[in-house]
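ok so for the tutorial part 2 we go from a plain amino acid sequence to predicted structure tokens. step 1 is just haveing the sequence, like this:
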Amino acid sequence: MTDIAIAIMNAAERHIRVGGFSGFSFREIAAEVGVKSSSVHYHFPTKEKLAAAVVRRYTEELSERMDRELEVDPDPVRIWTEAFRGTLLSPERMCPCTVLGAASLDLPPEVAAEVRGFFRMCLSKLVAAGLSETAAAEFYSTITGAMVVAVVLGEPAIFDRATSELREMRTAA
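step 2 — the prediction. this is what the tokens look like for a chain of 173 residues:
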């Protein structure tokens, strides 16, 4: 992938984190990257293809990161909670897949399929790390929901309150 394509995807990801699929246009991305709109179209013929590529890349990166971190610390609850807490405290403050997931019924099919793939990857990784399917679904729902509530209310401490008992239960086990 070229440096321009990577810059386009980076810009699109930043916009998706804030405004979802409707939160960007090719003109905005082109201006941010410093290229013509036709260059964005050259690398990603449609907005759907660009958003799908961003989600696919994010999914791959998070999957690899979780694998690396679980090699060092085998506690999936701690690892995933800290990863999502880090996202919450970052400048963009939201996981792009969580933003898109909230609007998944209104996404183009190609993008919706990638978002479903992200959520399936997360649940599969949690199960592979030792959580039951039910526990994985409850835990993942808690950390994503806590992130959304904390961002909406502008109170990152809500995330910590929502996840504190989960961490304590795993530590006590």
